[in-house]
């Protein structure tokens, strides 16, 4: 068991953005969450990554309660174990694409210099970004920034990737590159939990949940 979610609820005033959700994600799983805008998908992922706190319920990573982690343990979990891709990705404006991809290395050094270099080359190649490696974020399209954020989330080889509409800004060709990259990482053991409107990404998943009004109302695939 890798991630366990028990009766998770996030309430804003009298509105439950996430309403008593329970599910498990095991090591190596590929889980997709689909659902209309406003159904609570981003709120759920923000809870799972510790960006916001639940009103009730619990989240456990490897049987450790997220709410019981110290600030430093939470920071370590985020830096080492959780790859995160946000719905609206931001890069550091005065760093090149390559420097942005390598930014997480500042917070955790999991690998040698050579190994990071090799991983960065691999990701640039797979996402067709070699020619923009020295560009600055302001010189790039939303799709290119999204691809850089994807590469950044994978540079530390996290055991789990949590992604919020990671291909939302991509054309079909680039979305296909991301789809193939995620499949290959999943085959090598990466656990993936993503929110998507991209049916190609969703159908690669082993499990698809449909979210509606803060709840998982249906398991489409299991
Ligand atoms: P999705 O990602 O599925 O489009 P969100 O999780 O972003 O949905 O939002 C779910 C609902 O929660 C929406 O109705 C949204 O307006 C509401 N919501 C999200 N964040 C807040 C907040 N900080 N305060 C109040 N309401 C919020
Ligand atoms: Mg959202």
Helix and strand arrangement:
Elements: E1 3-12, E2 15-25, E3 30-34, H1 41-48, E4 56-61, E5 64-65, H2 71-81, E6 82-85, H3 97-101, H4 113-126, H5 142-154, E7 160-164, H6 172-187, E8 191-195, H7 199-204, E9 207-212, E10 215-221
Parallel strand pairs: 3-8, 3-9, 6-7, 7-8
Antiparallel strand pairs: 1-2, 1-4, 4-5, 9-10
Would you write up a description of this structure?
The protein is α/β, with parallel strands linked by helices and 222 residues long. It has a single domain (3-219), classed as P-loop containing nucleotide triphosphate hydrolases (Rossmann fold, 3-Layer(aba) Sandwich), CATH 3.40.50.300. It has helices spanning 41-48, 71-81, 97-101, 113-126, 142-154, 172-187, 199-204; strands spanning 3-12, 15-25, 30-34, 56-61, 64-65, 82-85, 160-164, 191-195, 207-212, 215-221. The chain has a 6-stranded mixed beta sheet, with helices on both faces. Magnesium ion binds next to helix 1.
Strands of the largest sheet, in order across it?
6-7-8-3-9-10
Name given to the CATH architecture = 3-Layer(aba) Sandwich
Proportion in β-strands? 25-35%
- The computed structural class is alpha/beta
Number of structurally distinct domains: 1
Q: In percent, how helical is the residue content?
A: 25-40%
What is the strand tally? 10
The residue-averaged pLDDT reads: 95
The CATH class designation is: Alpha Beta
Radius of gyration, taken over Cα atoms and rounded to an integer in Å: 17 Å
Number of helices: 7
The separation of the N and C termini measures 16 Å
Bound molecules: adenosine-5'-diphosphate, magnesium ion
Looking at the structure, the CATH topology is Rossmann fold
Please give the largest β-sheet.
Answer: 6 strands, mixed
State the shape: globular
What is the CATH homology-level superfamily? P-loop containing nucleotide triphosphate hydrolases
Element order: H for helix, E for strand: EEEHEEHEHHHEHEHEE
The stretches of 5 or more residues where confidence is low (pLDDT under 50) are none
């Amino acid at each position: 068991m890798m991630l366990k979610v028990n009766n998770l609820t996030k309430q804003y005033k009298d509105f439950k953005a996430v309403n008593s959700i329970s599910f498990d994600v095991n090591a190596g799983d590929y889980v997709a969450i689909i659902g209309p805008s406003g159904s609570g998908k981003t709120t759920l992922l923000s809870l799972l990554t510790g960006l916001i706190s639940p009103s009730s319920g619990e989240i456990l990573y490897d049987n450790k309660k997220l709410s019981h982690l110290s600030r430093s343990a939470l920071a370590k979990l985020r830096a080492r174990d959780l790859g995160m891709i946000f719905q609206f990705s931001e890069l550091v404006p005065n760093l090149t694409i390559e420097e942005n991809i390598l930014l997480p290395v500042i917070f955790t050094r999991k690998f040698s210099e050579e190994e990071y270099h090799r991983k960065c080359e691999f990701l640039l190649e797979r996402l067709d970004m070699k020619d923009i490696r020295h560009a600055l974020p302001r010189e790039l399209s939303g799709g290119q920034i999204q691809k850089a954020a994807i590469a950044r989330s994978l540079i530390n080889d996290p055991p789990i990737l949590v992604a919020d509409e990671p291909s939302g800004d991509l054309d079909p060709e680039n979305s296909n590159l991301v789809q193939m990259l995620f499949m290959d990482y999943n085959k090598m053991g990466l656990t993936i939990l993503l929110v998507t409107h991209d049916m190609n990404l969703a159908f690669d998943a082993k499990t698809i949940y449909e979210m509606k009004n803060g709840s998982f109302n249906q398991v489409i695939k299991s």
